[in-house]
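RECORD TYPE: inverse folding
INPUT: structure tokens
STRUCTURE:
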């Protein structure tokens, strides 16, 4: 039985990828991770998809994080090669999401522990249901932070807050995460969250997707460039975008409805 379910919405050019392993509570085991990676690659390579949405099929949980029985077996047998393969698979999934040519969205519900949160920190748009709980407690298991947490958390919420949640190992809520800047929106119910995501995908589908893709690349490149270099790249991207005939069409449309 598959632990990942993908539903395509042609009206919004969206691939909804559902984590669907009730028995393991969407634990990041080999089966789920492998299937998830395959579906993300497929969506990334599809010319008909503009947005990718990650959701859980189950109301009570998004992901329980790493497979603890699997980690215990690796630790007992000191199977470093197996651990390396698992982590490399998960790291590839993280980079496929972060560097995706599509707009990536994650909607958290229930609880998302450790890697169940961290794997999706690279999404472009992150939302959650208010009852969702999170935790970063690697050191309580005697291991170090992984799966992009040491990369994304300081960049998204700052060093001080990152150290606080990692060192304390305490649960934190969706509202906490939004206040810190980790999430874009928080909703009262799963229904409200899904409705918002669908509306958001509709907006993406209506706009010029090439311009959206180029802007996404500019934002990501800004972390690597100085101001002068970034201005140079912005200038080239802007001039390239004006070669698209769609710009004339959209500018005329805006002028037709302008009140200025």
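DESIGNED SEQUENCE:
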């Amino acid at each position: 039985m598959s632990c990942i379910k993908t539903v395509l919405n042609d009206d919004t050019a969206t691939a909804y990828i559902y984590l669907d392993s009730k028995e393991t509570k969407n634990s990041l085991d080999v089966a789920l991770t492998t299937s998830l990676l395959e579906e993300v690659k497929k969506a990334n390579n599809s010319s008909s998809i503009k947005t990718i949405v990650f959701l859980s099929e189950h109301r009570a949980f998004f992901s329980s994080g790493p497979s603890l029985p699997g980690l215990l077996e690796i630790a007992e047998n000191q199977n470093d090669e197996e651990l390396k393969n698992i982590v490399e698979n998960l790291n590839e999934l993280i980079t496929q999401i972060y560097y995706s040519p599509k707009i990536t969205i994650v909607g958290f519900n229930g609880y998302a522990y450790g890697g169940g949160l961290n794997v999706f920190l690279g999404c472009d748009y992150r939302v959650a249901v208010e009852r969702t709980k999170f935790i970063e407690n690697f050191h309580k298991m005697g291991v170090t932070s992984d799966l992009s947490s040491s990369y994304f958390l300081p960049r998204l919420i700052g060093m001080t807050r990152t150290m606080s949640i990692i060192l304390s190992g305490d649960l934190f809520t969706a509202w906490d995460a939004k206040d810190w800047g980790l999430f874009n929106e928080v909703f009262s119910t799963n229904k409200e969250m899904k409705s918002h995501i669908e509306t958001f995908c509709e907006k993406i589908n209506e706009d010029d997707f090439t311009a959206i893709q180029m802007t996404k690349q500019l934002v990501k490149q800004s972390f690597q460039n100085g101001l002068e270099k970034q201005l140079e790249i912005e200038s080239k991207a802007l001039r390239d975008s004006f070669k698209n005939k769609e710009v004339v069409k959209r500018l005329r449309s805006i002028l037709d409805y302008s009140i200025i």
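NOTES: The two ends are 58 Å apart (CA to CA).
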